[in-house]
Design a protein that fits this description.
3 helices, repeat, C1q domain-containing protein, alpha+beta
Length: 253
Amino acid sequence: MGGYYGLVFLVVFTLIPARCDESCGARDGRPGEAGAPGRDGYPGAKGEEGETAVMLEGPVDEAVLRRLKGEAGGRGQQGVMGHKGYRGHLGAAGQPGEPGHPGAEGKGILSGGQGAQVARSAFSAIRTHNSYPAFGRPITYGPAVVNTPEDGDKDFNEATGHFTCRVPGVYYFTFHSMAKVSMCLNIASQALTNSLGFCDYNKNTDQVLSGGVVLQLTAGQKVWLESFSDEQTPRELKDSQAKQIIFSGFLLF
């Protein structure tokens, strides 16, 4: 009896798969979506350089000529200048610069024991005499009206009539004379190649003669005034009327 039940079970078990194959078939699935594009591959190797183009005889393809590089042409003419642009706005003021370094300490031309002093040199002397001044010799004077420096040796010597440069620089010298006879006076100096002569001839009136010069002097050079002969008559040279000569000079810079 037990064997019979086992057989029935076996039959049922084998029928189920046969019935499923007929009624349980699945449909085909849909195609999947396209994947994302892949990354670029690595650059390929550089190709070999082509051969140099060679111009052949005979007909030439114009398309090939246009692809060939020609020689550089000449420089063209300059074009017309364009209109001037508008002026830009003024920029903001820049920052102040840094102060400069102090300059070197100045040195005075003269030293009087109390620091540097301003260089000064000036004189004015008057000759009042009835005799005619001798030719070719420095004219001498009475006490000078002005003669600097006030202390020490003077720049102008009244007894010799010489001005001796103590301070190198540029000077101005001038003279004036008044007489009733013809007068000729020279401004002479070691700084001059030739003397500077001035003459005024007698016209039976008081004769006024003047002259001046600017000289650049070095230390030790002298300047003086002297009379010279030109058209004076012997009577004029012996004249005993009053005659006056003023000789002046001063440092410009």
